Amino acid sequence: MATLKRFYRKTNILSSSGKYEITLDQRKLKTPQGKIFQVDSKPLALAIATEWDMQKQIIDKSNMHLTALCNTVIDNPHNYTKEDMVNYIVSSLEMDTLLFHSNENDELHKLQTENWDPLVQWFCDNYRVNMIKTQSIVAPTISSKTKLILTRHLMSYNYSAVYGFMYGVDAIKSVILTLAAAERVISIKEAVKQSRLEENYQISHWGSVEWFHDHNKYDLQARLAAAILFVHLNSYSVSYQPKENNKN
Fold first, then answer.
1. How far apart are CA 166 and CA 73, in angstroms?
2. Which Pfam families match (predicted)?
3. Percent of the chain, pLDDT > 70?
4. At 202, which helix (H) or strand (E)?
5. 82-236 falls under which CATH superfamily?
6. Per-residue pLDDT tens for 127-185?
7. Over 60: is that where the pLDDT of 14 sits?
8. Burial level of 48, CB count in 10 A (0-12/13-18/19+)?
9. How far apart are CA 154 and CA 23, in angstroms?
10. Closest Cα to residue 14, out of 27, 32, 1?
């Protein structure tokens, strides 16, 4: 990948027609498709400007996760609708890391039960659903009711926030951990730690290539942190309360 030298001295934001743009000196930031980079949230615009301001002599776009998230939302290169992304997240639930427990290693299974079961229970209690774990390679069955409740919850967010959720789920392979982090039930570090529980168990027994595993851990933390921040900065007043069934 060709490197890009820093070509600007300072960053700033400006308001335009109710949206916020980022400037690099006197130039307006644009997306890969050449569109003006605009966001609805002033705090998000400030975070993006800070991301660009933190670049040194060489611009390292691989670590500019908020910028990448915004670029994808603005350009939408895959033509995703909000419904497409919600369906993807809901379908990912059946492959959630926290639902797959070891059937070959009792020590690992105990760790998974102690660490993951409380988070699965939180998910069930918070969204009033039931989840089934598995100890086989066959994915557990997710009920239609659970899918509907999760779909309604995610659809209550705007397009950008839903993309943030999808980015987080893809990063740590867990809908449950991503939602728990978004709800501040667990920290970003703890969410990543739980997503890597089996890997960390193997490392504790067989050792690791220190620089590689550390890089992987910090990269996941950065990606998930960006995803959750993106959700929060694009969500103005989203709350969730499951509706009671109407009684005649």
1. 12
2. ATP12
3. 91
4. helix 197-206
5. ATP12 ATPase (1.10.3580.10)
6. 999 999 898 888 899 999 999 999 999 999 999 999 999 999 999 999 999 999 999 99
7. yes
8. buried
9. 32
10. 27
**Per-residue model confidence (pLDDT) at position 207:** 66
| Per-residue b or e along 141-171, where b marks 16 or more CB atoms closer than 10 Å to that residue's CB | ebeeebbebbeebbeebbebbbbbbbbbbeb
Query: Which residue in 1, 2, 75 sits closest to 38, CA to CA?
Result: 75
Question: Is 75 strand, coil or helix?
Answer: helix
Q: What is the mean pLDDT of residues 8-16?
A: 95
Q: Which among 166, 156, 157 has a CA at the least distance from the CA of 232?
A: 157
pLDDT digits (tens, 9 = 90+) for 174-228: 999 999 999 999 999 999 999 999 998 988 777 665 656 678 899 999 999 999 9
DSSP structural state of residue 104 = S
Strand (E) positions, the chain? 4-5, 11-16, 19-24, 27-28, 38-39, 58-59
pLDDT at position 210 is: 61
Q: Can you give the residue ranges of every domain in the chain?
A: 11-75, 82-236
Written as one letter, the residue type at 23 is T
